[in-house]
Write a sequence for this structure.
């Protein structure tokens, strides 16, 4: 198992946002977390990434207990995340965004003289990641000027560029049109062979197309977990959550 | 060693007196920051105006109380004008912009005061009725006026506590500190609330200035030093917290006062007199900043951090 | 050629010509004004490095100016006039001070950072006031300029001018390289979006601290130069209003442009010397002027250099 989460808890005052969540993700799989709004999905992701401290429970990653590690160390160990709200470096070009992630991963950041813009190896590596998300044509555009869908794709490219073992994706298709969504799904399906992914997603078509395993979260609690077929068949899930969803 | 218990008690009281003055200034500063998210370097100006107006009015009217009242009203008016003219466009700007504009205001008012009242310092007399001393312990007299300052400061703290805890305005203040949008959604005139809070802070600072008149030199720029100390206080106390401001004020006031009077003789007990004469004042002048550094190192948001989310 | 390169070339060419022009016009007074401008330009440049690229609003930067000046003054007081020793001391002490101040304040963010740097600046100010051995509040005279053997006579205003010029040029080139280097990219990334930077594995503390220390050391050098010009040092040079002035220079010239603050220093100091000749109450004009600049023109004069990047580049 690449990621093992055991009885994780997060409280905000009286509110229990994450209530004894337990899950395990084996290497090479896509694990989806679904649930209605306010189910605590993003909170859980922030706990895994290390931005929020957990009140109880443990997180093991790649055989090590990372529960107490700060976010940047977890990232350096190979746990990359994307954000639900577009969170790129908006004054950097697409290329600079990705190049930054690469240089941080390489760990050579205390260099004060050599210019990143003239670092051919770094630039071509960054272009490679942009190509993976079909952004190589847009490499020199300032991120703030990219279209919404392009920024979502860039977000994924940044995450990939830090060569993670596990990718935590927070609604990669949110706010996208059907075509853009389909592109991201194709991309993730392609990555599946080389990467492990923990995915939060609202788009049920995407989830059932991609996921090997699904956990359903309601009010911070796991109400069901299993293969896509099991989740589809689960009446509790239908009633608690999916029943409201017309796409289902 | 020439330190006895009476001397220590006297210095402790001096520290508390200094502390409550700091509290009167910091209270407004911390409220304005906590609720309006505005950092106001011109707050020291209101303290200075209070001192000048009070001294002038005492001279004209002969009455200390009239002087204090005039100081409060005058600074309140100045504060409201400042709020309406310069701050309203500033609330949504960055802290850097706020710092620079209020810094510009400080330069302006310090110079204005120099033009109106001249470059030399003024001194106000302690009102006759309060000029005596009171035995706080048998054989330990302490100036009545300083006790009055302590009393006034504590009254102000109680008043603020009651205001924030038990009144409708206080409820809005508390709500506004944690959720501005919600207060606005409740149909409260947030601009009026802001002006009220700013005026309250201005009045308290002016009160401190008026009270300081008889014990400190009244001069242009006198607010600067107090402003910096008030900033230290609210950083230590936690921005936006009245309780934090009170505790930190007393802490800073006593640590600073005791440091200035005690460190030199203390150092002289184990260092040579010459070394102690140099090191004592040097360390004393840095003491509260080191205290701040120490507290911030462990609690980067101060003793009573604002509750956000 | 990029517009910022052109701007830089124009600025430095103009600055390089000042002594010749002043001598030709027989107005050697302007060389002195020029030296002051260069010195404060270094301070403003050093502040812009952390303010414009790291988002750190230091309101205590004059402290480093003071440390550099006192390092020269105190060594001179003890009879050490060796320029190398004095400048090394200025750099080492300001580096250590920046390390201490930074270690506490860089952990804080936003307004806490502003206030802690302000408070530490005042701490050093009061420390200087309390050092009665070195003149206390009144300050102390420095008996002679830093001694660099026979080959650099800082007593000669023109030599001092070009020494300051070279330091400014060197620091400007270094800063310009730095913001485009790997370190600079990380620093700017933290400024833009710290949460995202942490998520790709950046431990932001050490980058911000390193930048703060580099900036503090640079500003310390400008202090050492200032001591050489004035041959006098007093606590007033690290008063918080001085820190405010350095901030104003950066704002006037344009945050995050590196070359803007140099122009900001030129404009501010010329404004100061002009206004103070008109009236002794010149701050009553400066205050409102500052308010108007911030409220209505807060991008500064060279803001368009930085702004250019955000414009669509299709």
């Amino acid at each position: 198992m690449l990621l093992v989460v055991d009885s994780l808890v997060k409280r905000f005052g009286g509110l229990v946002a994450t209530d004894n969540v337990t899950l395990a993700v084996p290497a090479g799989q896509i694990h989806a977390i679904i649930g209605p709004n306010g189910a605590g999905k993003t909170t859980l992701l922030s706990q895994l990434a290390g931005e929020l401290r957990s009140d109880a429970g443990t997180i093991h990653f790649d055989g090590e207990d990372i529960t107490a590690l700060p976010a940047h160390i977890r990232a350096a160990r190979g746990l990359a995340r994307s954000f639900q709200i577009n969170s790129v470096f908006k004054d950097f070009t697409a290329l600079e965004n990705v190049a930054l992630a690469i240089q941080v991963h390489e760990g050579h950041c205390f260099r004060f003289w050599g210019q990143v813009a003239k670092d051919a190896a770094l630039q071509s590596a960054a272009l490679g990641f942009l190509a993976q998300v079909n952004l190589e044509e847009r490499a020199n555009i300032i991120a703030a000027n990219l279209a919404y869908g392009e920024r979502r794709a860039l977000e994924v490219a940044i995450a990939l560029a830090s060569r993670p073992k596990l990718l935590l994706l927070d609604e990669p298709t949110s706010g996208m049109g059907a075509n853009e969504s389909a592109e991201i799904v194709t991309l993730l399906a392609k990555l599946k062979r080389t990467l492990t992914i923990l995915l939060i997603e609202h788009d049920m078509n995407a989830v059932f197309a991609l996921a090997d395993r699904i956990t359903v979260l309601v009010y911070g609690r796991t109400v069901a977990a299993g293969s896509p077929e099991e989740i589809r068949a689960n009446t509790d899930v239908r009633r608690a959550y999916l029943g409201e969803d017309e796409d289902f | 060693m020439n330190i006895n218990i009476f001397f220590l008690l006297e210095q402790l009281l001096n520290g508390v007196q200094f502390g409550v003055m700091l509290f009167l200034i910091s209270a407004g500063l911390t409220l304005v920051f906590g609720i309006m998210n505005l950092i106001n370097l011109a707050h020291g100006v209101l303290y200075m105006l209070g001192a000048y107006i009070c001294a002038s009015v005492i001279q004209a009217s002969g009455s200390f109380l009239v002087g204090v009242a005039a100081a409060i009203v005058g600074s309140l008016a100045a504060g409201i004008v400042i709020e309406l003219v310069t701050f309203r466009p500033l609330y949504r700007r960055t802290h850097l912009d706020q710092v620079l504009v209020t810094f510009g205001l400080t330069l302006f008012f310090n110079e204005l005061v120099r033009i109106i009242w001249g470059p030399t310092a003024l001194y106000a007399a302690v009102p006759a009725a309060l000029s005596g001393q009171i035995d706080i312990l048998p054989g330990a007299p302490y100036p009545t006026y300083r006790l009055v300052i302590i009393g006034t400061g504590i009254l102000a703290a109680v008043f603020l506590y009651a205001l924030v805890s038990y009144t409708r305005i206080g409820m809005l203040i508390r709500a506004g500190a944690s959720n501005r949008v919600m207060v606005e959604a409740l149909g409260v005139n947030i601009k009026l609330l802001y002006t009220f809070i700013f005026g309250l802070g201005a009045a308290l600072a002016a009160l401190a200035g008026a009270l300081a008149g008889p014990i400190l030199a009244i001069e242009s720029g006198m607010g600067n030093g107090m402003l910096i100390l008030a900033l230290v206080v609210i950083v230590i106390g936690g921005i936006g917290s009245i309780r934090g401001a009170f505790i930190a004020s007393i802490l800073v006031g006593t640590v600073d006062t005791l440091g200035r009077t005690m460190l030199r003789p203390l150092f002289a007990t184990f260092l040579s007199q010459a070394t102690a004469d140099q090191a004592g004042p040097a360390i004393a002048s840095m003491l509260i900043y080191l205290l701040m550094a120490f507290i911030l190192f462990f609690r980067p948001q101060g003793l009573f951090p604002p509750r956000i989310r | 050629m990029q517009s910022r390169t052109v701007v830089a070339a124009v600025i430095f060419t103009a600055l390089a010509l000042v002594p010749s022009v002043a001598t030709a016009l027989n107005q050697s007074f302007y060389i002195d004004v020029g030296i002051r401008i260069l010195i404060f330009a270094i301070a403003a440049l050093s502040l812009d490095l952390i303010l414009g690229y790291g988002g750190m609003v230091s309101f205590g930067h004059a402290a480093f100016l003071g440390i550099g000046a006192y390092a020269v003054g105190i060594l001179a007081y003890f009879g050490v006039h060796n320029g190398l020793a004095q400048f090394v001391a200025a750099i080492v002490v300001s580096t250590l001070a920046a390390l201490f101040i930074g270690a506490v304040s860089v952990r804080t963010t936003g307004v806490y950072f502003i206030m802690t740097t302000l408070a530490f600046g005042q701490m050093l100010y009061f420390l200087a006031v309390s050092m009665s051995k070195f003149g206390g509040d009144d300050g102390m005279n420095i008996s002679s300029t830093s001694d660099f053997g026979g080959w650099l006579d800082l007593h000669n205003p023109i030599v001092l001018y070009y020494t300051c010029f070279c330091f400014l040029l060197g620091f400007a080139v270094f800063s310009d390289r730095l913001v485009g280097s790997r370190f600079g990219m990380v620093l700017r990334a933290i400024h833009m979006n710290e949460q995202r930077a942490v998520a790709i594995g950046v431990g932001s503390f050490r980058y911000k601290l390193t930048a703060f220390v580099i900036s503090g050391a640079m500003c310390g050098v400008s202090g050492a130069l200032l001591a050489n010009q004035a041959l006098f040092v007093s606590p007033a040079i690290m008063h918080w209003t001085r820190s405010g002035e350095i901030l104003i220079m950066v704002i006037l010239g344009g945050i995050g442009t590196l070359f803007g603050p140099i122009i900001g220093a030129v404009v501010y100091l010329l404004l100061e010397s002009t206004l103070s000749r008109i009236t002794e109450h010149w701050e009553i004009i400066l205050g409102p002027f500052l308010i108007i600049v911030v409220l209505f023109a807060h991008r500064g004069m060279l803001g368009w250099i930085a702004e250019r990047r955000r414009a669509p580049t299709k």
About this structure: Chain C has one domain: 2-310. The first helix of chain C runs from residue 3 to 24. The interface with chain A takes residues 174, 177-178, 180-186, 188-189, 192-193, 195-204, 207, 210, 309-310, 312-314 of chain C (CB under 8 Å).
